[in-house]
Amino acid sequence: LTKHEHVIADLLPDLENCENLLEASMLNGDMSMAEEISYNQIALHERLLGIVQEQYPIIRKRQEDSKEFKRRRRWAIFRMANRDVASVVELKFRQIEACEEDIQKIKTQVENYSQDDLGQRRRYDLDKAESD
């Protein structure tokens, strides 16, 4: 597109020059010169139109590529977010499992201590009964 823009920029002064020459030749009454300048002006406008028409397929292709890129980018973001959510959920489940294991260990220790307390209580009761 930059090449086209440069060509258009080069054509615009030529078109303006043709317009000025056409106006001057018409003021001087030189119709044959005005006709020749008009043909040149038409040729320049046709060239300008051709260049503008060449830009449309390029612009359309870039627009379609951009849509495809945006669609791919959006899905990449969705996949990345899905991975992030899945990793957070997985981490939470691992933490829950670790907590459940810790709770089970604590319950086991409480049972052991309770049994030890019962054993100590029986021994105390036996010792107390023997000393009485």
Task: List the defining traits of the structure above.
mainly alpha
Structural write-up:
With 132 residues, this protein is an all-alpha fold. 97% of the residues lie in helices and 0% in strands. The protein is built from two helices and no strands. Helix 1 runs antiparallel to helix 2. The longest helix has 101 residues. It is rod-shaped, with a radius of gyration of 46 Å. The model has no long low-confidence stretch (mean pLDDT 89).
Proportion of β residues? under 5%
Average pLDDT level: 89
Structural class determined from secondary elements: mainly alpha
Largest sheet features:
none
List the secondary-structure elements in sequence, H or E: HH
From the structure provided, what is the oligomeric state, counting identical versus distinct chains?
single chain
What's the end-to-end separation, in Å?
A: 111 Å
Outline:
rod-shaped
Low-confidence stretches: none
- Tell me how many strands there are: 0
Q: State the share of residues found in helices, binned by percent.
A: over 70%
> Radius of gyration over alpha carbons?
46 Å
Count of DSSP H/I helices: 2
